[in-house]
């Protein structure tokens, strides 16, 4: 039996029991056998969830790129590490071998060094899904710099906030990006953001679209000529196990985004282990995760997890609908994809289209299907299973978070019997618990509660960058001594988990986490707006869509309401990003509030969902009369 690759359910239970009884031995054995260390650890784990503080493999020395690249060169040097599939299918795909990846990453690492970037410095990466995005992430890791990737769909304001918060010295971006039929000028967005970020002294620009852009003298340089000149040798910086690897921002229910900080060794061990088991990756497979590297899924399961296993991983620049809704399936056929990992929102969007888009392609290479980002509804699960997997490929419904670094609850294909809409069982090392509102653990099966974790795992985020108090408040204060996920869950009669959704003010739209607070802030900045509340309502493609209730300053506002809607939408697109634009904006006279002044979102959610038959207890409302008025004009 190998602890690293679990082969059947009986083995899973054995391995799981060991991981709970002897967590330190369990992880130490995996770490020892499957990775390259420059120095072994002194201590496997020390932790205290009240501080909170977690340290794995203390004082071990390593470099993650040595594990993801160098150690494969002898046996897999000419194997493809990354297949890059461009936006436009008429452009040729690139097959980047491990040898080539090694050279590119070293060259870029040398460029970073020549610009004065050192261990511990923060580098912001704002790039579309081009190979340079993977090179940039790995080049930072090569020299011990901390990468902060910002999804290249975010607005200049959102980019500026994140760049400032992480105090980045450098920005890596491109002239533009292709998304389906659209071309986006990224450099303009960067220029605007950097007006607020004087400490970014150097900007490296990847040439992708070739459009006209401004290059600021002394600050901006094209990346490609610098890489051409740079040496292809760059010795990896040897870092400590607990040295930071990256910061990645995630929306909070209040205020500014949280920069989740992940460290090196534990993250590496956990993402590699989960990748191997959850995708049942075997040599020769071609694995494709459709996420963007701007999200945690891309960090852990396009870059680090697959490369640590010497896998072939696909990076797709485009969108599922271009040139038509068959694109995903065309790519599966073209590259003979064996594992296909995507999001429920994409599945629902594709399921609405003519089935010929699927049937025109040979999908027989597929062995494993995966889902991530939000609960997958029963209908989408069956469509995926019947039409894409042809009932032959198990679906792994993987539950996890930016904060957890790696997949926490998921079936393992050909090991765990799947059940539609259930993420099923915890991965080895993960000890979930369901909590009631009084902070007591709910034992037994056929129960539901708030999902927490009671023991640390190697890839848990270590802090919120620059705000450890916020880390403690958000994750460790709801239930004493436990990590609280923010999600609700139920446990069925055999112990399978089903995630039921967020219990806080985060709304997941098309798989993207959006905090309501920043969107409301953006709306409220419009001069005509007095107050607003944003809630989610079910949407058959996006999972949830946004509904904004807006109070205007002057109720007799003379401007046309459609214009106001447009302006508010623009404001949201500028401040948060286009993805946060509400589907519906209703102008109201008042918002239902409790006596302590809190907006009763529960009621607004019901109205937005057109489910007003039972509004529950409204007796604690300060202004019950507004509810009828809102319902009467609901959109
Ligand atoms: C990986 C990722 C985290 C939140 C999480 C939960 C939701 C993710 C899910 C799921 C049900 C799944 N979520 N996977 N809900 N089933 N398989 O998505 O990270 O962007 O931080 O979002 O997404 O609500 O708390 P992140």
Automatic annotation (TrEMBL):
<protein>
    <recommendedName>
        <fullName>Acetate--CoA ligase</fullName>
        <ecNumber>6.2.1.1</ecNumber>
    </recommendedName>
</protein>
<dbReference type="InterPro" id="IPR000873">
    <property type="entry name" value="AMP-dep_synth/lig_dom"/>
</dbReference>
<feature type="domain" description="AMP-dependent synthetase/ligase">
    <location>
        <begin position="74"/>
        <end position="456"/>
    </location>
</feature>
<dbReference type="InterPro" id="IPR020845">
    <property type="entry name" value="AMP-binding_CS"/>
</dbReference>
<keyword id="KW-0547">Nucleotide-binding</keyword>
<dbReference type="GO" id="GO:0005524">
    <property type="term" value="F:ATP binding"/>
</dbReference>
<dbReference type="Pfam" id="PF16177">
    <property type="entry name" value="ACAS_N"/>
</dbReference>
<dbReference type="InterPro" id="IPR045851">
    <property type="entry name" value="AMP-bd_C_sf"/>
</dbReference>
<dbReference type="GO" id="GO:0016208">
    <property type="term" value="F:AMP binding"/>
</dbReference>
<keyword id="KW-0436">Ligase</keyword>
<dbReference type="Pfam" id="PF00501">
    <property type="entry name" value="AMP-binding"/>
</dbReference>
<comment type="similarity">
    <text>Belongs to the ATP-dependent AMP-binding enzyme family.</text>
</comment>
<feature type="domain" description="Acetyl-coenzyme A synthetase N-terminal">
    <location>
        <begin position="12"/>
        <end position="68"/>
    </location>
</feature>
<dbReference type="GO" id="GO:0019427">
    <property type="term" value="P:acetyl-CoA biosynthetic process from acetate"/>
</dbReference>
<dbReference type="GO" id="GO:0003987">
    <property type="term" value="F:acetate-CoA ligase activity"/>
</dbReference>
<keyword id="KW-0067">ATP-binding</keyword>
<feature type="domain" description="AMP-binding enzyme C-terminal">
    <location>
        <begin position="519"/>
        <end position="598"/>
    </location>
</feature>
<dbReference type="InterPro" id="IPR011904">
    <property type="entry name" value="Ac_CoA_lig"/>
</dbReference>
<dbReference type="Pfam" id="PF13193">
    <property type="entry name" value="AMP-binding_C"/>
</dbReference>
<keyword id="KW-0007">Acetylation</keyword>
<dbReference type="InterPro" id="IPR042099">
    <property type="entry name" value="ANL_N_sf"/>
</dbReference>
<dbReference type="InterPro" id="IPR032387">
    <property type="entry name" value="ACAS_N"/>
</dbReference>
<dbReference type="InterPro" id="IPR025110">
    <property type="entry name" value="AMP-bd_C"/>
</dbReference>
């Amino acid at each position: 039996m190998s602890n690293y690759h679990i082969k059947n359910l009986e083995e899973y239970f054995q391995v799981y029991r060991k991981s709970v009884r002897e967590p330190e031995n369990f992880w130490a054995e995996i770490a020892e056998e499957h990775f390259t260390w420059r120095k072994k650890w002194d201590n496997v784990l020390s932790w205290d969830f009240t501080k909170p503080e977690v340290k794995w493999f203390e004082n071990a020395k390593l470099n993650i790129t040595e594990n993801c690249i160098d150690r494969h060169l002898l046996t897999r040097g000419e194997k493809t590490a990354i297949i890059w599939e461009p936006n436009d299918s008429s452009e040729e795909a690139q097959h980047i071998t491990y040898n080539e990846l090694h050279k590119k990453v070293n060259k870029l690492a040398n460029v970073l060094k020549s610009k004065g970037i050192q261990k511990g410095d923060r580098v912001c990466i704002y790039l579309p899904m081009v190979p340079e995005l993977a090179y940039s992430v790995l080049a930072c890791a090569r020299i011990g710099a901390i990468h902060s990737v910002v999804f290249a769909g975010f607005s200049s304001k959102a980019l500026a906030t994140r760049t400032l918060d992480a105090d980045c010295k450098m920005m890596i971006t491109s002239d533009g990006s292709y998304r389906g039929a659209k071309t986006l000028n990224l450099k303009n967005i960067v220029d605007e953001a950097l007006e607020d970020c004087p400490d970014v002294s150097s900007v490296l620009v990847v040439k992708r679209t070739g459009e006209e852009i401004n290059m600021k003298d002394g600050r901006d340089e094209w990346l490609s000529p610098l890489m051409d000149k740079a040496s292809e040798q760059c010795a990896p910086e040897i870092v400590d196990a607990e040295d930071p690897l990256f910061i990645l921002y995630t929306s909070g229910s209040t205020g500014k985004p949280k920069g989740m900080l992940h460290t090196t060794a534990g993250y590496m061990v956990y993402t590699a282990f989960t990748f191997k088991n959850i995708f049942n990756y075997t040599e020769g497979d071609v694995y494709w995760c459709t996420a963007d590297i701007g999200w945690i899924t891309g960090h852990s399961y396009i870059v680090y997890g697959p490369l640590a296993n010497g896998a072939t991983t696909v990076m797709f620049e485009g969108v599922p609908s271009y040139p038509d809704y068959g694109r995903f399936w065309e790519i599966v056929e073209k590259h003979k994809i064996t594992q296909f990992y995507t999001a429920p929102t994409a599945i629902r969007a594709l399921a609405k289209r003519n089935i010929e888009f699927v049937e025109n392609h040979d999908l027989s290479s597929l062995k494993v299907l995966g889902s991530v980002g939000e609960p997958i509804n029963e209908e989408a699960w069956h469509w995926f299973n019947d039409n894409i997997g042809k009932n032959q490929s198990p679906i792994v419904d993987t539950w996890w978070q930016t904060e957890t670094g790696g997949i926490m609850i998921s079936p393992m294909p050909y090991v765990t019997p799947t059940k539609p809409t259930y993420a099923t069982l915890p991965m080895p090392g993960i000890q979930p618990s369901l909590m009631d509102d009084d902070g007591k653990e709910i034992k037994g099966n056929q129960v539901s509660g708030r999902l927490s974790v009671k023991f640390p795992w190697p890839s848990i985020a270590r802090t919120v960058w620059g705000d450890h108090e916020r880390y403690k408040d958000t994750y460790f204060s709801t239930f004493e001594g436990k990590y609280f996920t923010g999600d609700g869950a139920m446990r069925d009669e055999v112990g399978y988990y089903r995630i039921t959704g967020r219990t806080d003010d985060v709304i997941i739209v098309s798989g993207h986490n959006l905090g309501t607070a920043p969107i409301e802030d953006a709306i409220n900045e419009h001069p005509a707006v007095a107050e607003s509340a944003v809630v989610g309502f079910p949407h058959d493609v996006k999972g949830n869509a946004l509904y904004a209730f807006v109070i205007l300053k002057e109720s007799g506002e003379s401007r046309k309401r459609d214009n106001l809607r447009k302006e508010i939408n623009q404001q949201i697109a500028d401040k948060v990003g286009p993805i946060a634009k509400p589907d519906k904006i209703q102008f109201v006279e008042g918002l239902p509030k409790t006596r302590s002044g809190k907006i009763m979102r529960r009621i607004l959610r019901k109205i937005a969902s057109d489910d007003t038959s039972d509004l529950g207890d409204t007796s604690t409302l300060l202004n019950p009369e507004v509810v009828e008025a809102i319902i009467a004009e609901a959109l």
